[in-house]
Amino acid sequence: MIFRARILALTMFTLTAAIAVDALAQTRDPNTEIVGLWKTKRYNGRDAQGPLIIQRNGTTYTGDMVGFTFPLAMNNGELSFELPNAQGGFRGRLTGNSIRGIWFSSAVGQLGGGTPVVLTPQGVNRWTGRVAQQEGTETSYLLISRRPDGTLAAFLRNIERDLGGFLRLRSAVRSGNSITLFGGRAQSADSVVATGKYDSADRVMTLDFGGQGGVYEFTPDDDPHSDFYPRGKSPGKYVYRAPLAVDDGWATASLDQVGMDRATVERGMQAIIDMPMDSLNAPQVHAVLIARNGKLVLEEYFHGDNRDYLHNERSAAKSVSATIIGATMLAGAPIKLSTPVYQVMNDGTISANLEPRKRAMTLQHLMTMSSGYFCDDNNDAAPGNEDQMWNQQTDFVKFTLGLPLAFAPGDTAIYCSINPNLALNMTGRAAKESPFYLFDRLVATPMGISRYIWPIDRVRNPYGGGGIGLVARDFIKFGQMMLDDGTWHGRRIVSSEFVRQASSSLMKIEGRDYGLLWWPQSFTIGSRTIRGFAALGSGGQIVMVFPELKLVVATNGGSYASRGWRFVGADLMTKYVLPAVLSR
What we know:
Layout: H1 2-27, E1 36-45, E2 50-57, E3 60-65, E4 68-75, E5 78-82, E6 89-95, E7 98-104, E8 112-121, E9 126-131, E10 136-146, E11 152-158, H2 163-167, E12 169-175, E13 178-183, E14 191-199, E15 204-208, E16 215-220, E17 251-252, H3 262-273, E18 285-292, E19 295-301, E20 311-312, H4 317-330, H5 341-345, H6 356-359, H7 363-367, H8 386-392, H9 396-401, H10 418-431, H11 435-444, E21 454-456, E22 469-470, H12 472-483, E23 487-488, E24 491-492, H13 496-502, E25 507-509, E26 512-514, E27 519-525, E28 528-537, E29 541-546, E30 551-557, H14 566-582
Parallel strand pairs: 17-19
Antiparallel strand pairs: 1-10, 1-16, 2-3, 2-9, 3-4, 4-5, 5-6, 6-7, 7-8, 8-9, 8-21, 10-11, 11-12, 12-13, 13-14, 14-15, 15-16, 18-19, 18-30, 20-22, 23-24, 25-26, 27-28, 28-29, 29-30
Helix pairs in contact: 3-14, 4-10, 4-11
């Protein structure tokens, strides 16, 4: 009898506990499980890379790379080959004892990038080098938080290309195991941006963004050193250290040695480190470098960026194109600012059927965005819109030459990236030398720049409208070269006159001064106005030059499609960097 009573009591206890657990499960908010920071990291794989061997036997050349042996073509002194299976290709030429060339990461007909390759002699009629590619990764963070009314707010942050800024997520909804993200560019009404499932057992959120990147698997990011934050979740106090001297041409010094107030700069870096990351428009500062009196005095990286990373410089690369053009002029190529565009692009003559306004178009019109082409990077309906061109066109140069004009050249300046791209390729045509080789020979080599990525169109023209990848210590060199009147370590890169014209106000774009692919700038600090000029690219890719202060500032960032980049162009300069100079 006692045994039966105990069994009955145990049964009743078990039933009661089960009912209680079931009741708790029914009252628990399922949204709690998905509130927090989530991360996904996609490895896009490395393109073909590794040792490249070229051998000569009489007048023929053969190559060896990634297990393939193949013949090289020789055309007008240029060697070339294509790897099987559309793995990439090479173009190069003998320069002294070496072969200097460019490696293309994709097959002809595809978009991709070009990186430099140098092969040095190894014995007789044999050259060896290495094709090196930066690892392709795509890192995204999804932050889901609870609003006061219980609904879920959400935003997406992508380090490499700011996908979240374009998608504009605003909210998340969970229904059972289904997850839906809402947002969009239109502020009036939200649309579905992604759908997916949540696996509560494995804590994996699988989301499909469709044509905006496909399917991603997010897992919780509980790492206290997460790159979602500038320097981790609890970074502590910033301590200044002078930059390390490495073999890249930069002399280094401390802030104190060049007359800058250390405490003011430290406050600026602390402001970046402590920046709340709770909104889409939070500034994404990846790097800050300062040079004064020709010496590098500050080098700081955030959000996982580092000294060796080739950062996309976006439209600040237009100023790199300007440097190549100026260097080519200095080298004696038959081109100047007044050279007619269509004369050069038609091999020295102008077609009798060409309309009069295109006959009048010059290189200067391209470099001041006043070509008159019907193009506007901020107007998707413009035939020459940059994004539309990248999505639809094969040969960007040929496409641009055929565009209609909306204005007479020189009348109106409209920001449009096809202009500097045509200017760069026009320069190569005039010099009868690829812009790849012009950059390597006249700019990169004398300035000690050995690593970079050039974006290319589908016929492998280098794109001069933006997007070159550089390490930050090389990026800032372009500002120092302009500050030093067109020289780097005493070697002239562009003429003094080119520096003067490039940094002067030659046109107005939406009320802002514009030179030759450089932007004149001024800042007011107290009662003093500091004038300079800058290379500007979306997301915070900036090189600012202040001649009277012997100061150059370079930044990289990731706010490509959000307002966060404005911190660099405003607060960082006016509250910290410039006051650090002026307070001494």
